[in-house]
Structure formats: C-alpha cells, structure tokens
TrEMBL record:
It comes from Marivirga tractuosa (strain ATCC 23168 / DSM 4126 / NBRC 15989 / NCIMB 1408 / VKM B-1430 / H-43). Residues 9-334 form the NADH:flavin oxidoreductase/NADH oxidase N-terminal domain. In the N-terminal section; belongs to the NADH:flavin oxidoreductase/NADH oxidase family. This is 2,4-dienoyl-CoA reductase. Its EC number is 1.3.1.34. GO terms for molecular function: 2,4-dienoyl-CoA reductase (NADPH) activity; FMN binding; iron-sulfur cluster binding; metal ion binding. InterPro entries: Aldolase_TIM (IPR013785), FAD/NAD-bd_sf (IPR036188), FAD/NAD-binding_dom (IPR023753), NADH:flavin_oxidoreductase (IPR051793), OxRdtase_FMN_N (IPR001155). Keywords: Flavoprotein, FMN, Iron, Iron-sulfur, Metal-binding, Oxidoreductase. It comes from the Bacteria. The keyword Oxidoreductase applies.
Amino acid sequence: MAHSSYPHLFEPLDLGFTQLKNRVLMGSMHTGLEEAKNGFEKMAAFYAERAKGGAGLIVTGGVSPNWQGWLKPFSIQMTKRSHAKKHRIITDAVHEAGGKICMQILHAGRYGYHPFSLAPSAIKAPINPFKPWKMSGRRIKLTIKDYAKSAQLAKEAGYDGVEIMGSEGYLINQFIVKHTNKRTDEWGGSYENRIKFPIEIAKAIREAVGKEFIIIFRLSMLDLIPNGSTWEEVVQLAKELEKAGVTIINTGIGWHEARVPTIVTSVPRAAFTWVTERMKKEVNIPLITTNRINMPETAEEILSSGQADMVSMARPFLADPEIINKSEQGREDEINTCIACNQACLDHVFKNITSSCLVNPRACHETELVAQPLKQAKNIAVVGAGPAGLAFSTEAARRGHQVTLFDASNEIGGQFNMAKQIPGKEEFYETLRYFKKQIELTGVKLQLDKKVSAEELKDFDEVVVATGVNPRDPKISGQDNDKVLSYIDVLKAHKPVGKKVAIIGAGGIGFDVAEYLTHPEEEDHDDLQAFFKEWGVDMDFEKRGGVEGKPIKIDAPREIIMLQRSEGKMGAKLGKTTGWVHRNSLRNRQVKMVTNIQYDKIDDKGLYITKDGKQELLEVDNIILCAGQLPEKSLFNELTEKGIKTHLIGGAFEAAELDAKKAIKQATELALEI
C-alpha cells in the first residue's frame, strides 16, 4: 500500500526476479569502517539500522576486485572465499532488518593512492601524487575476470546484487574517455573500443551470477571535465549495458577532479535530475537519479514527474537512518536533514578518519555511541541553545533526565541563525526545525529571552554550559570608528553595509560574510540556470563532458577585499572537499584576497595596511571584523567557584573555528553518559 503523501516514493519496484519495497536507494559511501578494527560488526550495525529505517535497497562503499584496484594500501577487497565469509555478518543483519543490499565493486584506477595503481594510460590524476602504470592487454582481460569473480563471491556472501562503479573518474570511466585513454590497441582509439571494457565487465558478471541477481551500473552521464563523453556516447553505452544484462542504471555525476560543485550545500536540491530524465527516453531498464535529494517532497516530485524510477540518497541516511520510515509515517518534521556540509563524511574519509555526520554523530559509530541505562533521572540546566546546547538537551531528555534549556536570545540556534542566512547554507533552517520538534517531543523546558545567573542555577543537580563564543578583538588602532562592523552586526543585526568593503580575517566566518555580501539580497537559491551558468555547465550538453570550460565572472553588488595576516593560501583550513568551492565562488564574484599583511590603523578614510614593507590605504565604506572567536566561559567559571557541578561544551569549551561538528559530537557523548 503506497503512502498517500508520497504515492510514487512508496510504490514497489518490480525487477522481474525480485521486488524492491520502495523507490529509495541508499547510495554508496566509503565510510572508513571497511578497514577499521571490528569493521564488519560495525558495518553490520550501520547498514542494518538503515535497512530498518526503510531504505529500499542499500549499496555498500566501494570494494576492490583486486589489490591493484585499491583506493589506498590494504583497503577492502573481495577476491577470495575467506573475504566473502566476513561479509556474511553484514548481509545477514540487513536481511534480518527487512532490507536488500548490493556490494559496490570499485577499481580506483589512477585514483588509487599507492604506487601500484593501474590505468588505461600512464597519465597522473591532478588530485593524486602517484602516476599510474599502463595496463597491458593481458592485465585488462584478467581485471575483467576479477570483476566477475568479485561479483560471484558477493553472491556467495549473501548480497542481493552488485553495483559496478563506472563513474566519478575511477578505472572504468578512465577507459571510456579520450582524456585518460590514449591507447592504440583494441581497448583504445574509437569509442567502440573504449567502451569495450565496461561492456565486457557487465557481460562477464551477468554470466558469473546468473539471471536472478541485481546488477546496477553506475554510469557517468555527465563527466564535467573537458574531453569527457558527449551525450550521444553516453546513450550508446547505456544501450549496450542494457543489452549486456544490467538490471538498473544509476546516474554518476562529475569526476572527482571536476571543478564543478556537485554535492555541496550550495548546489540546489535535485540539481542534476535533468540528466537522468534525458536518459529515460533512451533505455527500458529502471534509472536511478542522484545528488542533493535530501527530503521526501523532493524525491516524490522527481518520481511523479517521470524523471527517474528511483532516487539515490546517500548522506541523508548518515544524517537520519530513519528518514524513509519518518516520511512514510507523516513525521517529516522529525527528519534530521542532511545539510550537505561534507565536514564529517567526505572530509573525514579524505583524512583517513572514520566517517560520521555533523548533525548525527552516531553515524558509523552505532556500536560505540550507545545510551547508557539511566541510573537516576537528574534535574539538569543547560545554558545556551546553540548546536551544542540543543544536541545535549534533547539527547539527555530522551534518556529520561529533566532538562531546562536557557538562552538569552529570543530563538534557538545560536550561531546557526547567522549561518542559515549565508547563500548556499539554507539547509541550516532544516536543522533548527528538527531541533524545535525534538525539544517538543522530548519535553525539554525551553526558556528563551532569559539571561540566567549562576545564583539562579544553584538548585539544579548539574549544569551544562554551552554559552558559545565571543568575537576576538583584533586590537587595531581606530577600530571604534563608525565604519567598523563586526560579523554579528552584519549577519544578526543586519546593519547596512556600503559598496566597498574590507573583511579582516579569512577563516570560515570571513568566507561566510564575503559570500553573504557578494550575493544580491533577493537571489533565488533554487535557480538552476544561474547556478549552472556560474560554474560553466552546458545544460544543452552540446559540449563534451557537459562543461563550457571556464566559469563566468559574476557582477557582485559590492567590491570586497579579504585580508589575512598569515602567509599561505586563503581558506586553507576550510574543508578539503568544500574549500575550493568557496574560494572559486568568491573569485567568480571578483573578491580580492590579500595575505601576509599587517593592520596599521583605521580612520575616516579607511583601513591602512602594510604589505611587503609598503603601507597602503584601502578606501572602503566599511571594515568588517571576522578575526576569530574566543570561548565565553564567565558563567562556567562563576559556577565552578560556587562548587556547582558544571560541564563545559561546544564553542565555550574550545573556539578554534566555529565547529558545529565538534560541538554536537561532544554534546551527544556527554548526554549519553550523564
């Protein structure tokens, strides 16, 4: 029976030999659990929770078909029976929870982070220090066999199917395009030769696993690199894959080295479904669409308008394992929405840390972050309703503590209320909506507009101080001039800002303020045309790879110059997978970035700085201070002096960068133990 609000989302998908209960695929994510100690037990808990939460079909992180295909040394591979045995715990757990799961087979090719990587041609990737070795004809044939064997072992391990990773610029993708395939033998040259590799893999796998086994092929439908595939070529390969026995085609968007944002917050929701929709007219097997689909309404709209047969959600399942059940039960306001920040998922994986989720620290830590049985319910006061205070209060109340949450402001959210106004960070509204609902459900007593004193807190059993941060004082001579504003004046008090602006400080907040001031106020975040135009994507797909080559320059409403004292690249501390997007977005808006300077003074004329021994005057209308933050600890110190049992969390504990990830994790850990 389909759910009335989302009839298409909850319609089963009949694949002939088996049926999927709904139209949601939990997309593949490498979490780092694959190589962790007791990783298989942890993955079993992780995937089973998502199967219970309603995912129609799950795809694992990438598993290599041989050691040359490793993502990094000693990563997970499926090459022998003993490997298959280890996976049983995962497939059993998922099946017990009523789910279905496919194993992704991924050969990294030139993206392999090790000296033994192989590729169709010996061309180094721009994002990898290692140059790959060129594969011999014999090695290519052996690799095709390895894929088939891997799939066969996955079947023995109890998987319902496999996904062949043919996109994002990994090995198969490297064979398909001329950009990376310069071969002159039967595997290179003409397009027919270049696509022989993926077709032979699909055929070999189908032969190895028989008819009744799901084969998903993740096809790069839009490479977003110069010299990528043309639309006609993509269609030709899709038709060949259908003939080769593939069950479902999943949409792959962009290579990892592409310079177009595809999954960060600033990408509008469902921005790439038009690509899948184009393919719908060409093949008869089901198609999955993907990227920035994080709420049921978006998914339903895609399916009901016939753009795809299934939607893939990957990170939304990190943020909320129960997203699908909540959607089906009409509890959408309880969904902990993925805000596409990448800070705890992708950024972690690139640093070899186990993945998690900024808004849900339990993700990938299901076996460790477990609520302890409550010995006695305590009466706890929490001061500060920013991310740390909210996470602690709702988690502690859920366990049975009585919690009163105080905040001096008239709304919950703390620094999130500033963040949500930054163009491309609108998803923070969802997080605040989620916490409002959790406060209601868990019975936290919320007291807003209440600046509470230490004296008023003395009757509580324990106090949790989450008072956040204060702006750091840069101590520049003349900074009390009327031209000077703090980031709080701009983002919270909405004080008027002139046409020429200098921003002091280039951390996360400096970048946010620059982003905020370079967009027109009435901008539509969901304007797909504008987004693709800015990043040079050709929506008519007349250019190879779908890219024009160069992003365009955008007329910003203000002239901005960003300044930092230290040398080195501006925004170096921003996330690995998002920093380049922020930098390029500001460059597109012609923001000047100047490093290695000292601030001399401010007067009515503007800001005086010294660079390379020369003083210069920046004649600006306003100077905005974004020079970092310091923890707000005064209440904590007062309570401690009074001997009241007190805990310090979030920005008040440590204010290096505005780190909501750390704040929410620390708050959750404390709430599960207290």
